[in-house]
Fold:
Amino acid sequence: MGSDFGGDGGDTIVDPANGCNIAEEYVYLDVWVTNNCAVNDGGWTTNPALATSYEVAPPDSDAGLARFIAPITQDPRNSKTWIGGGQHVWLNTVGYAIRSGAQWTNLYDLGAGHVATAVATAGGRTDGTGWHQLTLPVDGTVPNRYIGGIDVDKYHPQHVLIAVNGFSRKWTEGPGAGVGHVFESWNAGNSWTDISANLPDVPANSVKLVPGGGLVLGTDTGVFYRAPHRTGWSILGHGLPTTVTLQVKVGPDGRVYVATHGRGQWAFRL
Structure:
Protein backbone atom coordinates (compact mmCIF):
# COMPACT_ATOMS: atom_id res chain seq x y z
CA MET A 1 0.00 0.00 0.00
CA GLY A 2 1.46 3.34 -1.04
CA SER A 3 1.60 6.50 1.03
CA ASP A 4 -0.15 9.58 -0.32
CA PHE A 5 1.62 12.54 -1.88
CA GLY A 6 0.40 15.06 0.72
CA GLY A 7 -2.64 17.31 0.97
CA ASP A 8 -6.01 16.62 -0.60
CA GLY A 9 -6.35 13.63 -2.91
CA GLY A 10 -8.36 13.14 -6.08
CA ASP A 11 -8.52 10.34 -8.61
CA THR A 12 -6.01 7.51 -8.26
CA ILE A 13 -4.95 4.76 -10.68
CA VAL A 14 -2.81 1.69 -9.96
CA ASP A 15 -0.97 -0.67 -12.29
CA PRO A 16 -2.75 -4.07 -12.17
CA ALA A 17 0.63 -5.76 -12.75
CA ASN A 18 2.48 -3.89 -9.98
CA GLY A 19 0.68 -2.37 -7.02
CA CYS A 20 3.58 0.00 -6.28
CA ASN A 21 3.09 1.77 -9.62
CA ILE A 22 0.61 4.44 -8.56
CA ALA A 23 -0.59 7.72 -10.04
CA GLU A 24 -2.56 10.08 -7.83
CA GLU A 25 -4.06 13.48 -8.34
CA TYR A 26 -3.52 16.13 -5.69
CA VAL A 27 -6.00 18.84 -6.86
CA TYR A 28 -6.67 20.60 -10.17
CA LEU A 29 -5.20 17.70 -12.18
CA ASP A 30 -1.86 17.93 -10.36
CA VAL A 31 -0.84 14.31 -10.98
CA TRP A 32 2.07 12.58 -9.23
CA VAL A 33 3.47 9.14 -10.00
CA THR A 34 5.53 6.63 -8.01
CA ASN A 35 7.09 3.28 -8.89
CA ASN A 36 7.88 2.14 -5.34
CA CYS A 37 4.68 2.89 -3.39
CA ALA A 38 6.11 6.36 -2.57
CA VAL A 39 8.37 4.85 0.10
CA ASN A 40 9.93 7.68 2.10
CA ASP A 41 13.74 7.60 2.05
CA GLY A 42 13.88 9.32 5.45
CA GLY A 43 14.49 12.85 4.24
CA TRP A 44 13.52 15.55 1.81
CA THR A 45 15.55 15.64 -1.39
CA THR A 46 15.49 17.31 -4.79
CA ASN A 47 18.00 14.85 -6.23
CA PRO A 48 16.16 13.00 -9.05
CA ALA A 49 18.24 9.91 -8.41
CA LEU A 50 16.73 9.65 -4.93
CA ALA A 51 13.18 10.70 -5.80
CA THR A 52 10.38 8.30 -4.98
CA SER A 53 7.61 10.27 -6.68
CA TYR A 54 7.43 12.65 -9.62
CA GLU A 55 5.09 15.53 -10.42
CA VAL A 56 3.70 14.86 -13.91
CA ALA A 57 0.76 17.26 -14.09
CA PRO A 58 -0.69 18.04 -17.55
CA PRO A 59 -0.47 21.71 -18.59
CA ASP A 60 -4.10 22.41 -17.61
CA SER A 61 -3.11 22.03 -13.95
CA ASP A 62 -0.80 25.04 -13.75
CA ALA A 63 -3.10 27.06 -16.01
CA GLY A 64 -6.08 26.63 -13.68
CA LEU A 65 -8.10 24.89 -16.40
CA ALA A 66 -9.27 21.86 -14.45
CA ARG A 67 -11.81 21.13 -11.74
CA PHE A 68 -10.69 20.99 -8.10
CA ILE A 69 -11.05 17.20 -8.37
CA ALA A 70 -10.40 16.45 -12.03
CA PRO A 71 -10.84 13.03 -13.68
CA ILE A 72 -8.02 10.68 -14.69
CA THR A 73 -8.20 7.02 -15.68
CA GLN A 74 -6.23 4.28 -17.42
CA ASP A 75 -7.27 1.97 -20.22
CA PRO A 76 -8.43 -1.41 -18.88
CA ARG A 77 -6.57 -3.14 -21.72
CA ASN A 78 -3.32 -1.18 -21.51
CA SER A 79 -2.03 0.38 -18.29
CA LYS A 80 0.34 2.56 -20.33
CA THR A 81 -2.60 4.53 -21.72
CA TRP A 82 -3.99 7.23 -19.43
CA ILE A 83 -6.61 9.89 -20.05
CA GLY A 84 -6.93 13.08 -17.98
CA GLY A 85 -9.48 15.84 -18.30
CA GLY A 86 -9.38 19.61 -17.76
CA GLN A 87 -10.35 22.11 -20.43
CA HIS A 88 -8.44 19.71 -22.67
CA VAL A 89 -8.48 15.93 -22.93
CA TRP A 90 -4.93 14.73 -22.22
CA LEU A 91 -3.27 11.45 -23.23
CA ASN A 92 -0.25 9.70 -21.67
CA THR A 93 1.09 6.66 -23.56
CA VAL A 94 4.12 5.78 -21.42
CA GLY A 95 2.14 4.88 -18.34
CA TYR A 96 3.98 4.80 -15.03
CA ALA A 97 7.29 5.61 -16.71
CA ILE A 98 6.10 9.20 -17.19
CA ARG A 99 8.42 11.77 -15.59
CA SER A 100 7.17 15.14 -16.86
CA GLY A 101 3.93 16.93 -17.60
CA ALA A 102 5.34 17.69 -21.04
CA GLN A 103 4.87 14.01 -21.94
CA TRP A 104 1.08 14.39 -22.12
CA THR A 105 -0.51 14.88 -25.56
CA ASN A 106 -3.41 17.28 -26.03
CA LEU A 107 -6.18 15.30 -27.74
CA TYR A 108 -9.03 17.81 -27.73
CA ASP A 109 -9.92 21.31 -26.50
CA LEU A 110 -13.39 21.43 -24.91
CA GLY A 111 -13.43 25.20 -25.27
CA ALA A 112 -13.03 28.16 -22.93
CA GLY A 113 -15.09 27.79 -19.76
CA HIS A 114 -15.64 24.05 -20.29
CA VAL A 115 -13.95 21.39 -18.14
CA ALA A 116 -14.18 17.62 -18.07
CA THR A 117 -16.07 15.95 -15.20
CA ALA A 118 -15.58 12.32 -16.31
CA VAL A 119 -13.31 10.46 -18.73
CA ALA A 120 -13.10 6.89 -20.02
CA THR A 121 -11.02 4.88 -22.48
CA ALA A 122 -11.32 1.30 -23.63
CA GLY A 123 -8.85 0.45 -26.38
CA GLY A 124 -10.17 3.24 -28.58
CA ARG A 125 -8.41 5.67 -30.89
CA THR A 126 -5.81 7.78 -29.14
CA ASP A 127 -4.29 9.70 -32.03
CA GLY A 128 -6.31 12.84 -31.38
CA THR A 129 -8.42 12.59 -34.53
CA GLY A 130 -12.11 12.01 -34.94
CA TRP A 131 -13.17 14.08 -31.91
CA HIS A 132 -16.28 16.23 -32.01
CA GLN A 133 -18.42 17.86 -29.37
CA LEU A 134 -21.94 16.59 -28.76
CA THR A 135 -24.74 19.05 -28.15
CA LEU A 136 -26.68 17.75 -25.14
CA PRO A 137 -29.48 17.10 -24.80
CA VAL A 138 -29.31 15.81 -28.37
CA ASP A 139 -32.99 14.90 -28.55
CA GLY A 140 -34.24 16.28 -25.24
CA THR A 141 -33.49 13.00 -23.45
CA VAL A 142 -30.25 13.68 -21.57
CA PRO A 143 -30.69 16.23 -18.76
CA ASN A 144 -28.55 19.34 -18.57
CA ARG A 145 -26.91 18.28 -15.32
CA TYR A 146 -23.46 17.27 -14.05
CA ILE A 147 -22.13 14.07 -15.65
CA GLY A 148 -20.65 12.08 -12.78
CA GLY A 149 -19.38 9.04 -14.65
CA ILE A 150 -18.93 7.54 -18.11
CA ASP A 151 -18.05 4.08 -19.39
CA VAL A 152 -17.25 2.71 -22.85
CA ASP A 153 -17.89 -0.88 -23.89
CA LYS A 154 -14.44 -2.29 -24.69
CA TYR A 155 -15.98 -4.74 -27.17
CA HIS A 156 -18.34 -2.24 -28.84
CA PRO A 157 -16.84 1.28 -28.58
CA GLN A 158 -20.00 2.88 -29.98
CA HIS A 159 -21.76 1.63 -26.83
CA VAL A 160 -21.49 4.32 -24.15
CA LEU A 161 -23.11 4.89 -20.74
CA ILE A 162 -23.27 8.00 -18.58
CA ALA A 163 -24.24 8.51 -14.93
CA VAL A 164 -25.89 11.87 -14.27
CA ASN A 165 -25.71 13.71 -10.96
CA GLY A 166 -28.35 15.94 -9.39
CA PHE A 167 -32.06 15.44 -8.79
CA SER A 168 -34.99 15.48 -11.21
CA ARG A 169 -37.52 17.04 -8.82
CA LYS A 170 -39.86 19.69 -10.13
CA TRP A 171 -37.89 22.56 -8.58
CA THR A 172 -34.91 21.70 -10.76
CA GLU A 173 -36.97 21.44 -13.92
CA GLY A 174 -36.75 23.94 -16.73
CA PRO A 175 -35.38 24.18 -20.26
CA GLY A 176 -32.97 21.28 -20.69
CA ALA A 177 -33.13 20.16 -17.06
CA GLY A 178 -34.70 16.79 -17.86
CA VAL A 179 -35.05 13.72 -15.67
CA GLY A 180 -33.30 10.40 -15.18
CA HIS A 181 -29.87 9.34 -13.98
CA VAL A 182 -28.48 6.66 -16.33
CA PHE A 183 -28.41 6.97 -20.11
CA GLU A 184 -27.20 4.60 -22.82
CA SER A 185 -26.10 5.17 -26.40
CA TRP A 186 -25.30 2.59 -29.07
CA ASN A 187 -24.10 5.11 -31.66
CA ALA A 188 -21.33 7.03 -29.83
CA GLY A 189 -23.67 9.59 -28.33
CA ASN A 190 -25.71 10.62 -31.36
CA SER A 191 -28.86 9.39 -29.62
CA TRP A 192 -29.57 8.29 -26.05
CA THR A 193 -32.04 6.16 -24.09
CA ASP A 194 -32.98 6.72 -20.45
CA ILE A 195 -32.43 3.37 -18.70
CA SER A 196 -33.02 4.66 -15.17
CA ALA A 197 -36.21 2.56 -14.85
CA ASN A 198 -36.92 1.95 -11.14
CA LEU A 199 -33.85 3.71 -9.73
CA PRO A 200 -34.45 6.18 -6.88
CA ASP A 201 -34.24 9.87 -7.74
CA VAL A 202 -30.76 10.41 -6.31
CA PRO A 203 -27.48 11.54 -7.89
CA ALA A 204 -25.65 8.86 -9.89
CA ASN A 205 -21.86 9.07 -9.63
CA SER A 206 -20.25 6.14 -11.44
CA VAL A 207 -21.44 3.49 -13.91
CA LYS A 208 -19.55 0.41 -15.02
CA LEU A 209 -20.16 -2.35 -17.55
CA VAL A 210 -19.18 -5.64 -15.92
CA PRO A 211 -18.23 -9.01 -17.47
CA GLY A 212 -21.27 -10.73 -18.93
CA GLY A 213 -23.09 -7.53 -19.84
CA GLY A 214 -24.47 -6.38 -16.50
CA LEU A 215 -24.29 -2.81 -15.17
CA VAL A 216 -23.19 -1.59 -11.75
CA LEU A 217 -24.12 1.92 -10.63
CA GLY A 218 -22.79 3.93 -7.70
CA THR A 219 -25.22 6.52 -6.31
CA ASP A 220 -25.67 8.78 -3.30
CA THR A 221 -27.62 6.04 -1.52
CA GLY A 222 -25.59 2.96 -2.43
CA VAL A 223 -24.85 0.54 -5.28
CA PHE A 224 -27.33 -0.89 -7.78
CA TYR A 225 -27.09 -3.70 -10.33
CA ARG A 226 -28.89 -4.34 -13.62
CA ALA A 227 -28.58 -7.91 -14.88
CA PRO A 228 -27.91 -8.63 -18.57
CA HIS A 229 -31.00 -8.35 -20.80
CA ARG A 230 -33.06 -6.87 -17.96
CA THR A 231 -34.50 -3.37 -17.50
CA GLY A 232 -34.94 -3.16 -13.73
CA TRP A 233 -32.31 -2.39 -11.09
CA SER A 234 -31.79 -4.00 -7.69
CA ILE A 235 -29.54 -3.31 -4.70
CA LEU A 236 -26.22 -5.07 -5.18
CA GLY A 237 -25.49 -7.65 -2.49
CA HIS A 238 -25.93 -7.28 1.25
CA GLY A 239 -24.13 -5.45 4.03
CA LEU A 240 -22.89 -2.40 2.14
CA PRO A 241 -23.47 0.78 4.21
CA THR A 242 -26.16 3.13 2.95
CA THR A 243 -23.84 5.93 1.94
CA VAL A 244 -22.54 7.83 -1.06
CA THR A 245 -20.64 5.62 -3.51
CA LEU A 246 -18.35 7.76 -5.63
CA GLN A 247 -16.55 5.26 -7.83
CA VAL A 248 -17.08 1.78 -9.24
CA LYS A 249 -14.25 -0.27 -10.76
CA VAL A 250 -13.78 -3.84 -11.99
CA GLY A 251 -10.53 -5.32 -10.70
CA PRO A 252 -8.19 -7.68 -12.59
CA ASP A 253 -9.54 -10.43 -10.35
CA GLY A 254 -13.04 -9.93 -11.78
CA ARG A 255 -14.49 -8.48 -8.61
CA VAL A 256 -16.37 -5.20 -8.45
CA TYR A 257 -14.79 -2.60 -6.17
CA VAL A 258 -16.59 0.48 -4.87
CA ALA A 259 -15.25 3.52 -3.04
CA THR A 260 -17.64 5.17 -0.59
CA HIS A 261 -17.73 8.52 1.15
CA GLY A 262 -16.42 7.90 4.66
CA ARG A 263 -17.22 4.18 4.84
CA GLY A 264 -14.17 2.71 3.11
CA GLN A 265 -13.77 0.51 0.05
CA TRP A 266 -15.74 -2.66 -0.59
CA ALA A 267 -15.50 -5.60 -2.98
CA PHE A 268 -18.17 -7.87 -4.44
CA ARG A 269 -17.89 -10.93 -6.69
CA LEU A 270 -20.72 -11.07 -9.21
